[in-house]
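Q: Entry one of two.
A:
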Amino acid sequence: MTEILVQDVTGGGISLDAARVIDHPAWPELKDAVEEIRAWQSTDGSIDFEAEGAPARSLVELTIDRVTAAVEQLSPLVPHDGAYHRALVDDLRKWAESGFTVPDFLDSLLAFQPAADRVDGLQHLVLFPMYTQNGNPDRNLEAVVLRMVWPEWLAELEATRYDNPLFCGITFEDFTAGYDTHSAVLFPETIAVREAPERFTWGGIFCDREAARFRKVTAAAVDTLGLQLPADIAAMIDDQERCEKAFVLWDMVHDRTHSHGDLPFDPFMIKQRQPFWMYGLEELRCDLTAFKEAVKLEAEGNTHGRDVQYAVLFDRMFRFPLSGDRTRNYDGLGGQLLFAYLHKHDVVRWTDNTLKIDWQRAPEVTNQLCAEIETLYRDGIDRPKLVHWFKAYELVSTYLAPHPGSKWAKGPDALDLSLPPRKLVDDVLPDEFPLSMFFEALAKKLKGVIADTKGITAADVSRTERAAA
């Protein structure tokens, strides 16, 4: 673990004793200035001064001055971010000097290195032009204050078992509008830069939002489906801190799995013109690998192992299939596949509008699905790309009914195989595997609950629970 130092900004040390950034008067000033700038930005982050209702350039420059002044006031509270904040101020000023063209914050991105000092509870003040995954699709300026989640037990597992030096477990302190959404990640890939770095050196996932959302949706699903939970799992769903621990462990193992195993895929493969079920299988493979490891951890006496298993099962089965729209919904597909697999192997039964789960067999059968996906990957090494895509389709369609109008479901003879594989992706329907009757029924009860988790934080859940008490 990194030694915890208490120094001022000039010393560049790490301080856990500093006041909360969000309690400083410069923080609301920074938020207000950023929100003003966001409203003026185009999709690519630039500001079009010729557009109707556009602000005067002098007004934008004054607002940028307010942003840089606030950053400089707040930076002493997070001295470990000092080099980053100095580069950030430089990038903000260069953006202004460019006439607010498409922003380029590569220099400040390279200076921000949160994974270099993973200290539990450490604050960071982050400001970038970026889109927020599952949130705002435009590259607007966003400010967020966060804390690192890196307890000793997690650091020990990473150091001895699940090496992932780039992973950052994080929680929200406060944020601008781009994070008042369903986004629960902070990824360098989303930031506006002139060129992508040779490699990214960190990736952050907000376990507090994931846990709060999981608890709210799972509680609603359990109530709707009449599901009887084991006492220890019911206690977990009632405990925000315990769920956060489950999610940070799940995320750490999931994240590393993208680069481990047979035929590991780029997690951003959907940009490479592959069918969305390939991305769905990859995400599910990573989640089921985390599940498999959690089964091992539970057997070894690790108290977080069982929690991770049911976080994976319930989030995948109840929330994922019903979140977002139905256009190339790869995470939804993975959730549908998991439920259907467990249902066809008699681990889950939906009878008399009540869901029952065979808690004893659930780990074994879930690991069985993981093994089938791993076999697909291993065999794929010896197959051409298009054959591999069809084999993956075959696996999914064994358990999920394709759309009746699907060309892919009719097999290779229905496609123009003279075209390159990436062109055949155009024949994939936006909703290639529609929701089953079970999920159509569940959606009527849970869609509103899922929508209400937009922007949720642990503090929101705490307020709701106090009000209920």
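Q: Entry two of two.
A:
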Amino acid sequence: MKTFLEYIKEHADRQPERTAVIVGGEERHTLTYATLYYRMLNHEPLPMPLLGDSWDGSFTLYTTGTTGKQKGVIISQRAVIANSENLINGHGYTPDTTLIIAGPMDHLGCWSKIFPTLMMGGTLYIIKDGMKSVNQLLQPIEEGGSHFATFLVPSSIRILLTQAADRLSALTDRIDFIEAGGAPLPHPDMLRLCELLPNTRLYNTFASTETGVISTYNYNDGRCLSGCLGKPLMHSSFHITDEGTIACQGDTLMSGYKDEPEMTAQVMRDGTVYTADGGWIDDEGMLHITGRKDDIINVGGLKVAPQEVEEAALSHPAVRECICISHTHPILGEAPELIIVLNDGHKLNKRDIATHISKTLERYKVPLYYNTAEEIKKTPNGKLDRKAYREMYNA
């Protein structure tokens, strides 16, 4: 098996002046493959974090997940290459690909894109310090060229849809693919993206720092299946446990948590990583996610996944963003509460929103409590910060 550094050496020898990395911003600068290889070989500063002892050894990504305790996830060179081959084959990376990294480098969704792009001899375009505005993402695409691609968390996609739908639509022939991950993408946003980008491949991917990249689904397939994450990729497999959660196997898995053997044993046994994500597998062998066990709201013994409530609410014209959380109820024990960021020009009409949600969801899933906010709390990686709301309400 070739190491990642050996892939870079091949490109540096064959096409030394080809652009490998572009760092965007007011003072844009580039690295050729020859320069990139020299710096990697000599451990000189790079626009991508090293996150390990060497580029041909193991890497350590630090994540807090839902526990709040920082964990160092060890990702072997074998896993790096397997993840990259999963992405190359699943998403169609080519030497012409320009992959825009628009989020934090310590997030697997962004960090993992370094490797397949450069292994194929493509170009990384890095938005330094992450995307702060839609212009940072769209401007380099509007400047010309084709075969652009990016990874975005659902909250960033929501911002694009609400602030730059027309600009995005004009770029469908330049954007090769957009991958979403980190959390389920709401179905209304999936449908809207398919409408705006008819010529773009649009992927929902199941991945985590612990499992690596496991499966993917191009929902711009005419069906746009909500919650679908596709079939297992070439180096991966999955199954559903007796508890209804997703378990993963294959070469992409982590080696374990750094200096935490007991914590490792809690989630990884016999070459299998056991996640806290609920899911099911359809007749085509495609994985569907239903949400994390920790997030489920128990309404008098009936289970409610907050994501499906949020998805129903987001199709209402007044709702820009929302999060569904658990609220203590004197009889039911728990009941859904919906916190909403309203679109401009709209006021909160609880009955109207409840009626809208009830058209697609069972009655017990319709929130009993409604509040508004200026913004929804998010993690540094752009996910809805459900843990912050749980702590706030349980304090």
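A: Comment on entry two: DSSP finds 13 helices and 22 strands in the chain. The first helix runs from residue 4 to 14.
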